[in-house]
Amino acid sequence: MSGSVRAVVFDLDGTLIDSDAPLLEAFVSLGVPASTVTYGHAVAEECERLGLALDDYVAAYDTTAAQPFAEVDEVLGSLDRWAVCSNKHPASGEVELERLGWEPEVALFADAFGWRHKHLGPVLERLGLGPHEVVMVGDSDGDLRCAEEVGCHFLWAGWNDRTARMRPSGEVLARPSELLRRLGLG
Ligand SMILES: [Mg+2]
Which of 11, 52, 56, 132 supports an S-S bond with 138, CB 3.0-4.6 Å? Predict the structure, then answer.
């Protein structure tokens, strides 16, 4: 990774916060079999696939449940510039950012992408940075795709057990603090 990285763009669910369980519980409470739930999709598209009303899903999701992964708070506090790029409903994600006291320079949720799968273009535009000036950190294939589409560096959030079990190709960080070392900050 080059020394020209000016900002880190994070996925939220499963990357900064350990949200698999509350995401799953919301689907299950609406009658979706747990075995059919997967992660990393645009929330509206996933609700449509599962035959759910988006508003019902948002109401069922407990915005108080997900906690940050270990070390994430400290790592975010060490970064000058960081952003969130998430497929989550803004009504869920914005409340969680506020609860956690996190103030990313840019935080874009599903509404910013027309409720389709997210992409990095609008995030880069708001940051005023090019793809070689950011690194993306995520836990799903969709996150990797976002990075590949614009040609920015991508790091896997391997501290999420689900991601580690995928054994993804590419660079996998075992802990959030490894990110600081990669950026020359730790
Ligand atoms: Mg995710």
Answer: 11
